């Protein structure tokens, strides 16, 4: 094998390499000049701020962000809630593990700063109920509430006699409530007046009329009339008064007066006059001792209770009269905290019960009035 080399071409390679390096150096200088010019222009012109996209991002839960909607699972209750300044709603199932759960849905809407409306729907095996509330608060210390409700007992769970006399039962309730609060330094802390009407209605099966038309003996007809259940209508007026005689004492007084009539058709079968009173007194003797007294009375029932608490100890005496039978009892108790601490000053520096205050207007619009009965007025 013979190798041949062209000496002229080999000698020309170094010169070509120098030409390439010079061209590259020139290009590098040009690019450096352009970059310096661009940097100078950028330094002279202000840098625009990037667009703010934080408002378009969804809120994430954190310490300072409270989501208005949430679920809640506590014990035997499951609920889905939404709560904001303008509206709130809650869907819940109580005793969801049992064979008789209670389904409930609340909704409240703030119409203005002083006016709100809401309601509640409840369904259980024994009954279904619909409630509607309107709340007006012209001042923070004054509130008017109007409520209406309809209770529909399930026919399978109403007394057998009621089923024999009526195809369906509906109980309508109406309430007007006015409350006024004063400051804690006033002698009169709160005054409330409530009036309500409850009326049970039912569609009669007409058995008595059909028995008369068929020629049934009048004695049997009268017996059937007496066996027909009577539907009740209740009208009542309630007055509440709260006092602060001293800085360490509080007095509560409640008086209710009304009437309850039971009807079969348009005829009154039974009439009852209702009158009841409640009295409660609490007084702090010193930082660790509190005296409490309660009295409750109605037509055939009276109960008095007087007790004293000091630290974890308590002693009370009570007397009860029920249908003419009197009973007296004594009670001595000692509180043991679940934490296991037996501190002897757990009740020290306690204050007497303060005057009540209004709940938020939206909460009131979805609440069930305590004066509405949960059972049908059937006798």
TrEMBL record:
Alphabetized UniProt keyword annotations: Signal
Keyword check for Signal: yes
Highest taxon above the source species: Bacteria
Region (Disordered): 50-72, 345-379
Signal sequence annotation: 1-35
Protein name listed in UniProt: Uncharacterized protein
């Amino acid at each position: 094998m013979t190798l041949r080399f062209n000496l002229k071409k080999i000698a020309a390679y170094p010169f070509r390499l120098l030409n390439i390096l010079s061209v590259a150096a020139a290009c590098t200088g040009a690019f450096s000049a352009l970059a310096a010019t661009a940097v100078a222009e950028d330094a002279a012109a202000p840098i625009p701020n990037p667009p703010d996209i934080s408002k378009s991002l969804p809120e994430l839960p954190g310490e300072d962000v409270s989501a208005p909607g949430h679920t809640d699972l506590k014990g035997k209750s499951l609920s889905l809630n939404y709560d904001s300044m303008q509206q709130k709603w809650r869907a819940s199932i109580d005793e969801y593990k049992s064979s008789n759960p209670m389904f409930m849905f609340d909704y409240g809407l703030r119409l203005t700063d002083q006016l709100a409306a809401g309601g509640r729907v409840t369904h259980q095996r024994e009954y279904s109920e619909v409630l509607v509330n309107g709340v007006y608060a012209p001042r923070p210390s004054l509130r008017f509430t109007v409520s209406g409700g309809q209770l529909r007992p399930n026919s399978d769970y109403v007394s057998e006699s009621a089923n024999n006399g009526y195809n369906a039962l509906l109980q309508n309730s109406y309430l007007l409530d006015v409350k006024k609060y004063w400051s804690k330094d006033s002698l009169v802390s709160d005054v409330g007046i409530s009036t309500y009407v409850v009326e049970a209605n039912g569609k009669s099966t007409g058995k008595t009329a059909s028995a008369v038309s068929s020629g049934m003996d009048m004695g049997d007809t009268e017996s059937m009339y007496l066996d027909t259940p009577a539907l009740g209508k209740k009208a009542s007026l309630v007055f509440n008064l709260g006092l602060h005689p001293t800085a360490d004492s509080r007095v509560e007084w409640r008086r209710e007066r009304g009437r309850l009539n039971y009807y079969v058709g348009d005829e009154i079968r039974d009439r009852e006059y209702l009158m009841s009173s409640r009295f409660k007194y609490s007084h702090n003797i010193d930082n660790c001792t509190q005296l409490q007294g309660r009295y409750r009375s109605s037509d055939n029932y009276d109960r008095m209770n007087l007790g004293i608490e000091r630290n974890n100890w308590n002693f009370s005496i009570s007397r009860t009269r029920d249908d003419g039978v009197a009973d007296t009892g004594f009670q001595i108790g000692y509180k043991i905290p679940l934490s296991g601490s037996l501190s002897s000053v757990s009740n020290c520096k306690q204050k007497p019960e303060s005057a009540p205050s209004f709940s938020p207007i939206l909460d009131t619009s979805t609440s069930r009035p305590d004066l509405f009965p949960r059972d049908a007025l059937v006798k």
